[in-house]
Write a structure and sequence with these properties.
With 104 residues, this protein is mainly alpha-helical. It contains 4 helices and no strands. Helix 1 (2-23) runs antiparallel to helix 2 (29-49), helix 1 packs across helix 3 and helix 3 runs antiparallel to helix 4. It starts with a helix and ends with a helix.
C-alpha cells in the first residue's frame, strides 16, 4: 500500500508542476487554487508513504515520478523539445526509479 500512496503522491506532483504553467504567475484564481490543492495532496501523500518507506528511496521516487511525468507532459502539452538525447535522459531517470523499487 505505501508504494501505491507514493505513486499517487508523484502523480499529484506532476499535476501541480503542470498546474504552475496554467496559473500564469498565480494570476488566475482557479488554476492557482487547483495547483495549491495538488501541492498539499502531494506532500500529504508523501508523508503517509514515509511511514513505511525509507526517506531517501521515497523522496527519490516521488521526485522522479514528478520529473519524468512533467517532462513528458511538457512535450505533449506544451511542445517542449523531444530530441533523442532528452528522451534518453528521461529514460535514464525512469530506469533509476525502477532500480530503486527493485532494490527496496
Amino acid at each position: 500500500m505505501p508504494w501505491i500512496i507514493l505513486t499517487l503522491a508523484g502523480i499529484f506532483e506532476i499535476a501541480w508542476a503542470i498546474g504552475l504553467k496554467y496559473t500564469e504567475g498565480f494570476t488566475r484564481p482557479l488554476p492557482t487554487a487547483l495547483t495549491v490543492g495538488a501541492m498539499i495532496v502531494s506532500i500529504g501523500l508523501l508523508g503517509l508513504a514515509l511511514r513505511d518507506l525509507p526517506l531517501g528511496t521515497a523522496y527519490a521516487i516521488w521526485t522522479g515520478i514528478g520529473a519524468v511525468g512533467t517532462a513528458t507532459l511538457g512535450i505533449v502539452l506544451f511542445g517542449d523539445p523531444a530530441h533523442a538525447a532528452r528522451l534518453f535522459c528521461i529514460g535514464l531517470i525512469l530506469a533509476g526509479l525502477v532500480g530503486l523499487k527493485l532494490v527496496s
